[in-house]
Design a protein that fits this description.
This protein has helices at residues 16-21, 103-114, 118-127, 129-140, 142-146, 153-157, 159-181, 183-203, 209-244, 247-251, 253-281, 287-292, 294-321, 341-371, 373-380, 386-410, 417-438, 440-443, 449-477, 484-505, 511-532, 541-553, 569-573, 582-606, and strands spanning 39-40, 71-75, 78-83, 86-89. By secondary structure, it is mainly alpha-helical. It has one domain (103-532): Growth Hormone, Chain: A, CATH 1.20.1250.20. A hairpin with a 2-residue loop joins strand 3 and strand 4 (86-89). Helix 9 runs antiparallel to helix 20. The longest helix has 36 residues, at 209-244. The protein is globular and about 80 Å long. The relative contact order is 0.11.
């Protein structure tokens, strides 16, 4: 074996961020790291042909969590841990995620998902309020919203779906823009538009009832446009922050995204609670008081909208001054952003069908129920007034919020994961809605109305536990960084077409038919999940980026992103995983690292 001299001015160091992101941390356990060695000698003097040698690998006694013996690999004078074919910087005595968080860490952990989730909070606070304030508008403007004397019925129905049109436009355009200008400034754009829309919603008025409705429509569209951009920005940023936020964050990437999204449930709950409190403050809790003081009802919903401006203004300040750009988006390779949309379609068509289709069918039932929630509650409680209706809505929102947190607790569990949660959620909602439709006339009788209430609220839990969270999460995890927010925005935009369809079509369906339709479309979601949805739990986001980089460089990729266990049924059937090879992937990693090191050495020599 020939000897080599190491250039003292050069050390081969793999970037720590690359190593942290490249590791499926769920396989790592305490106390399994042991002595093992892989040594790579240095480079010859500049200009000479370099030669690489690997010394014998000494495996540790015992196996790691997945049965693979850990080993140390030394590059220059830096040692890294290899586990399950991935690399992680570490030491023998390092412990991962075993030490509980202290009070300070817990506080920052809450902020880590609450602040990014404020956009989703505001989305629900304003958008879902359309169903909450509908009874208030009917009581305040009975000639327009109830009797249709001063406004056409079609005009009063437009606010129920115009904000969804705005959301779709925002998802697609700002999602694409986020891959161009970055996550930070994309997020600033969304919250700025939301601020304009929120101001207009608060001060909306008109010289006539019809003028008020038109003003309301314009404000809803502008706010919806801003909210639409929040979906891809929040999902992409949350997943990428988790990957670059250290070992604990990377291990619980799914939980970080779901908790960010759970702020949607908090926003819905808070909006309903504030409306109830304001009804008491303005002393219009009974039907008689509401008829006697209809203008006070306007004070209720205007005040609620105005209070929402407080977190919006804070978010503008926070995002402009303190929000940092995503480290993954800021990588040197990020200069190719969003240029190869054909790659996205040709290589991820099955995943696009999954994320677009499953989200579409879920949003049809979910938004349909939300927009017409007050009417459903009238079925559950026929004599309910505005206050009682809002109380039932608050209960439903609380049950749904529990579903968000159960999803966050289990989504990174290897025995549950994203796909199983989605399947369970779709299945349970389908069963409950089929029961509601099939036994509708029986369940709406006085003797069984309590059971009907339970079924309706229980379906809210399973919906949030499963597809409402997982569709948002999967659309941010199944695509490479350079097209992540574009793909997420497109998926969410298609999904909102389902919400728009429901907002229009539900106007012409009886309540029983709405249950039949929502149950049937949830069943279609089950089929799409089984066929086209891969489980990304074990795949670091950087692996998707490696696959994308290899494609653009004309190289064959052999890594974990095409491991058959990480592919969908259709992807396995079409042979996408045929090139998976652990040994070749290990050699590719060495080649990549040497190429990077050589480039750095060349740059140093030029300087």
């Amino acid at each position: 074996m020939p000897s080599h001299k190491v250039d003292p001015s050069f050390q081969l160091v793999i970037p720590a961020s690359f190593l942290a992101l490249h590791t499926p941390l769920c396989h790592r356990k305490r106390g399994t790291m042991a002595a093992a060695a892989n040594a790579v000698n240095g480079l010859d003097k500049p200009g000479a042909a370099r030669e690489r040698e690997m010394l014998e690998v000494q495996h540790a006694n015992g196996a790691a969590g997945d049965g693979v013996s850990p080993q140390h690999i030394r590059f220059g004078n830096t040692t890294y841990q290899r586990i399950s074919g991935s690399l992680l910087e570490g030491t023998d005595d390092e412990e991962l995620d075993e030490r509980p968080m202290g009070p300070t860490e817990t506080f920052w952990w809450f902020l880590s998902w609450m602040l990014p989730g404020m956009g989703m909070f505001l989305e629900a606070y304003y958008i879902f309020s359309i169903g909450n304030i509908k009874p208030l508008l009917k009581a305040e403007y009975p000639d327009c919203y109830k009797e249709f004397k001063t406004c056409g019925k079609t005009l009063t129905q437009i606010p129920e779906y115009i904000q969804i049109v705005g959301i779709i436009c925002g998802m697609i355009t700002i999602g694409y823009l986020g891959d161009r200008i970055g996550r930070k400034w994309g997020s600033v754009c969304t919250v700025s538009l939301m601020c304009v829309g929120a101001v207009l919603l608060t001060v909306q008025n008109g010289t006539s009832d019809k003028g008020q409705v038109i003003f309301y429509i314009i404000a809803q569209f502008i706010f919806g446009y801003g909210v639409g951009g929040e979906y891809p920005m929040a999902a992409g940023s949350a997943a990428e922050r988790a990957e670059t936020g250290g070992k604990r964050a990377a291990r619980f990437r799914g939980r970080a995204v779901v908790l960010t999204f759970s702020m949607q449930g908090v926003g819905n709950f808070v909006n309903t609670g504030i409306l109830l409190i304001l009804l008491c403050v303005f002393n219009v809790t009974t039907v008689a008081e509401q008829k006697a003081k209809p203008n006070s009802l306007g004070g209720v919903w205007r005040t609620a909208f105005g209070l929402g401006l407080i977190p919006i203004v804070f978010m503008i300040f926070y995002r402009v001054v303190y929000l940092k750009e995503s480290k993954m988006w800021s990588r040197p390779t990020a200069g190719q952003k969003a240029k190869d949309i054909s790659y996205l379609v040709s290589n991820y068509w099955g995943r696009l069908l999954s994320t677009c289709g499953c989200w579409f069918f879920w949003d049809f039932g979910f938004y349909g129920n939300k927009v017409f929630q007050s009417e459903f509650i009238k079925i559950l409680s026929p004599t309910a007034g505005i206050t009682t209706t809002l109380a039932w809505t608050l209960l439903n929102s609380g049950v749904a919020l529990v579903g968000y947190y159960f999803s966050a607790a289990l989504v990174d569990n290897i025995y549950w994961g994203r796909v199983r949660l989605q399947l369970i959620g779709f299945t349970m909602v389908s069963i409950l809605f089929f029961i509601s439709a099939g036994k509708y006339h029986t369940l709406t009788q006085d003797n069984y109305i309590g059971l009907f209430q339970f079924i309706y609220f229980f379906s809210s839990f399973w919906g949030q536990f499963g597809p409402n969270c997982t569709t948002f999460l999967l659309a941010g995890e199944l695509y490479p960084t350079d097209v992540r927010t574009t793909a997420h925005g497109a998926s969410a935009g298609i999904a909102k077409l389902g919400a728009l369809w429901a907002s229009v079509w539900f106007n012409y369906l009886a309540s029983r038919e709405r249950f039949w339709l929502a149950a049937s479309l949830n069943s279609v979601g089950i089929v799409l999940t089984l066929l086209f949805t891969p489980e990304p739990l074990r795949v670091p986001l950087l692996e998707l980026d490696r696959r994308y980089a290899y494609h653009t460089a004309g190289k064959v990729y052999h890594g974990e992103a095409i491991n058959p266990r990480n592919l969908s049924f259709v992807e396995r059937l079409t042979g996408i995983g045929k090139n998976y090879n652990k040994q070749l992937d290990r050699e590719d990693l060495y080649d990549d690292n040497y190429a990077e090191a050589t480039a750095k050495q060349t740059n140093v020599s030029k300087v």
